[in-house]
Task: structure prediction
Amino acid sequence: MQTNTKRPEIKTPPPGPKAKALIERDHAVTSPSYIKEYPLVVDHGEGSFVYDVDGNSYLDFMAGIAVTSTGHAHPHVVKSIQDAAAKFLHICGTDFYYESMVTLCEKLAKTVAPYMGQTKVFLSNSGTEAVEGALKLARNHTKRTKIIAFNGAFHGRTMGAITLNASKYTQKSNFGPLLPDVYHAPYSNPFHCPCGVSKDKADTECTCASFLEKEFFTRHFQASEVAAIIVEPIQGEGGYIMPARKFLKDLRTICDQNGIVLIFDEIQSGIGRTGDMFAAETMGVAPDVILSAKGIASGMPIGAIIAKTSVMTWGRGTHGSTYGGNPVCCAAANATLDIIGDKLNHVKVVGSYFIDELKKLQKKHAVIADVRGVGLMIGCEFLQKDGKPAMDYVGKLEQLAFRKGLLLLSCGKSTIRFAPPLIITQDEIKVGLEILDQCLTELGNA
Ligand code: PLP
Result:
């Protein structure tokens, strides 16, 4: 049965003539490194909908890669940006003071205070810069060099971050030499856990973290040489994987026992996406440092390093940025945090509806092998009949859904990530899932 909710409308099969013309101009002048998942040429957006240059509308289940947390062009965010821009565009927060920057750092510190205690905040322009800053901070604080990251990780595109990445070789091959002293360990994945534990027991019995002690600290180096363990508390690009809670707890214990800084990269999982402001709260583990970006300012470029005061010990002049914490971005972030602060329960409610409905689709379509996630950070893994990742299928699904007015985005080997704007309604989710159901029926099995 169809709802009365607004539905996406495809009037001209995309890419329409205006889209085609722009794509042609784009291909002539833009870097060939851009991915361009499908030929979506955006004119404007509103709430959970995106409109293309040929007058088609699309329901957005990916939010510009989990960024437009408050939906497209939220009036309060837009007004805050306009007001801030009319006052002053820039003065440099590294060297001078302004109210919106202080307010933002206060808000972030207050959010994490119940589980991290007293924190201080450094503002960057992007997620990858927050990652770079955190690596510098951990080394500077511990006077150690080694960093541990995880298989499947994605932390950004700058040199330090690509060294940490281990999801797709294209992101790092031919860019070396990379950062020395970075080591990768298996990431807990209850669906097929590297430690072999079954899915139903993983949360309490996963032993993936013991790899660090058994392998690294036995064969390669001492734990006392490690500056930081950096981990996504829910893996993003790697496949929207929710690790076992025990895995994160064990990492916390290893860090406590050895003076290692535990960094949670919450660039994708943070700012309300899990139904809590940060996944640290959802997973019940407090890190020493939280990194934020993406959803924090609804699409304006800003990132944050939120670190325990006892860890953010670097001295005056050790780290800075010309644009980091720009006043216009701070205004957008302050407005976003106010809106999202009131939406956390909504995310939990519509998120569980979303997961329940996907599980119903899983019963109908055998190609859906796993449905996982929390809040509006939901992954759906597709496997072929022979158990191999249904990579081509997922590519076709993205394309078909787009042509029917639903914006999807894949991650991992063969997972669709559902990361819609956090203001999405239950009816909108229903409409999107009806389209998804149609696509799966058309595509059949893999
Ligand atoms: N860390 C995680 C977990 C991410 O998902 C991303 C981006 O997808 C980044 C870091 C990099 O952020 P940015 O693209 O803003 O540099």
Remarks:
- The pocket of pyridoxal-5'-phosphate is lined by residues 65, 126-128, 131, 154-156, 232, 236-237, 265, 267-268, 293 (CB under 6 Å).
- The radius of gyration is 22 Å.
- The CA atoms of residues 343 and 423 lie 7 Å apart.
- The mean pLDDT is 97.
